[in-house]
Give the backbone structure.
Amino acid sequence: MQIKPGTKFNDADSYIALFAESTQKKLQQLRNTIKKAAPGAEEVISYNMPAYKLNSILVYFAGYENHIGFYPTSLPLQVFKEELTAYKTSKGAIQFPLDKALPSDLIKRIVQFRIKQTQQQQKPAKKVAKKSSQV
């Protein structure tokens, strides 16, 4: 399945609908896992892919011919490195093969990690009081 150049998506449903039924099931399973892990997150389209936003973008996903791309940014790939050895990864991406079961528990923990990460990034920096240099 190849998305035609210039195709713009308005929502995850229209994105998922373009794929073969077996791939749609995996995409829906991933979508449901993300929603359960981040119930307050807003589903959006970003970079023409389904994404989930809570404070900032948590994760993206995309369908391909032989895998599902899951994009949680780079830090979770370092933190969960040992658990991701069975999957092809790059700096900020994980490839879940279509012929294998999705690791729903791992996906859930990665999403929850991203929630904590974005919450920490949103906290205002503490102001350091300047000392008076009066003589």
